[in-house]
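Deliverable D2.4 — example input (structure tokens):
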């Protein structure tokens, strides 16, 4: 069985990138349970697939996961709304950074990215369809396991 070289997930039934595109489609539907945790899902995916994201984004993704795990979805929603507003060209186009999600430990920038995780996008997708039932719990586990692997 073939495995993803970055996160270690099996490439069966579909590779991580295909699952991620499927997840983005659900996220952009703006329906719960997918849309409310979009930022968490994207952060988990990119921290587990660091070759696909600029290194400068990793500290903000790391901090975002910590806010979500520590303070829950309501706090994360408030902070991501603020970061999105600051990122608008109307407000100077500030790219969200770790400072926009206060209280997180510094990102372990010098660490070698982990090659395996207890939960990957495959574990969140289950059968490849990202079933609504239990979705937020699977995303929370994905976030916690991503942080634990990098810590």
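Example output (designed residues):
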């Amino acid at each position: 069985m073939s495995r993803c070289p970055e996160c270690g997930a099996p490439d069966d039934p579909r590779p991580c990138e295909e699952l991620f595109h499927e997840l983005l489609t659900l996220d952009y539907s703006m329906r719960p349970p997918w849309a409310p945790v979009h930022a968490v899902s994207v952060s988990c995916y990119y921290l587990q697939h660091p070759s696909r994201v600029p290194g400068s984004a990793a500290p903000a993704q790391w901090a975002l996961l910590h806010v979500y795990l520590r303070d829950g979805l309501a706090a994360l929603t408030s902070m991501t709304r603020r970061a999105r507003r600051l990122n608008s060209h109307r407000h100077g186009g500030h790219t969200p950074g770790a400072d926009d999600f206060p209280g997180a430990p510094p990102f372990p920038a010098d660490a070698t990215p982990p090659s395996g995780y207890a939960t990957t996008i495959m574990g969140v997708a289950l059968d490849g369809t990202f079933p609504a039932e239990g979705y937020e719990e699977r995303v929370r586990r994905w976030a916690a396991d991503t942080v634990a692997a990098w810590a």
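Residues 58-87 form the longest helix (30 residues).
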